[in-house]
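Posting this for the archive.
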Amino acid sequence: MPALFVWGSFSYGVPAVTVSLRPMQAADRQAVLGLLLELTSHEGSLSPQRTTGPAAAADCLADDTEKAAEHGGAQIVVQQGDDVVGYLALRLGRTGPFVHEPLRDHVYIENIVVAAACRGTGIGQILLGEAERFARAAGCKVLHLSVLKDNELALNAYHRAGFETFAVEMAKVLE
């Protein structure tokens, strides 16, 4: 399957790398599970409400796959050489009547993760750029995502990419 596009060499204070973006394939499953395991482990360290471990990563991938299929979404990987070093799962969505009509149709980023060894190289920004390209192609004017309140690295990356706080989600665990 051809790459969506290939990014040439780029450098963000690290050695230049060449990566390509493409739709996730069945052969990518184990690599993506590894990335989601990193994500669930990291989020588990930030919130006791988050599940962790291989089963949580597998459930996450199954949920991403189902939502992408049911809601016109996509699952994209970033490949560097022979390695999958990034993953993006997104879907189309529609917000209710409490949002202005032109902003209701949106793309929701279900998951985005970059391999720990590749963070800080711009791969996350490339994935966010692909989400924006997907949204524009679908006629959507808004990207939505959720992030844990204590995930400072992700929050900073999203702010650099132009995201603003839209809503605050709260939870109360009932005993």
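The chain has one domain: 5-160. The longest strand covers residues 83-94.
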